[in-house]
């Protein structure tokens, strides 16, 4: 009795599958080798990593443009990070960031880094920061990020 029920269930399943394949015109000419080969290719396609762009940005920059990514710091815990053309100019890892305003200068024509400095705007003097800003030449890209307190003075 149990075997008869199993045969009926399998027959109904096969009949339903046949009807669906006829209605949706599913081709059944694939052999087992093709099925396994296709699944291996699909797995390989799924395992490929997405492309990596300069500075970890989401898409490639057009020609004659610089790729850059900036992130200001978080309170006094995480320092700012400035990256230009896949070159990290300032970061906590490089240990060249400090409390206040962090500045990176980049040549506007070549993308080459020129200088990096930070200015304490809480306990430090503002005069060196103003003098630094006045000394920046035309055609220089100025990138700034804050860390801890960027605007007390």
Task: Chart the SSEs and their pairings.
Layout: H1 2-23, H2 32-47, E1 68-71, E2 81-84, E3 87-90, E4 100-107, E5 113-119, H3 127-134, E6 140-147
Antiparallel strand pairs: 1-2, 2-3, 4-5, 4-6
Overview of this protein structure:
The structure is a single chain. Strand 4 (100-107) and strand 5 (113-119) form a beta hairpin. The mean pLDDT is 82. The longest helix is centred in the first third of the chain and has 22 residues, at 2-23. The strands form two sheets. A three-stranded antiparallel sheet has the order 1-2-3, with no helix packed on it. The protein has helices at residues 2-23, 32-47, 127-134; strands at residues 68-71, 81-84, 87-90, 100-107, 113-119, 140-147. It folds into two domains: 1-44; 54-147, no CATH class. It is elongated. The protein starts with a helix and ends in a 6-residue tail after the last strand. With 153 residues, the protein is of the alpha+beta class. The chain crosses the membrane at residues 6-24.
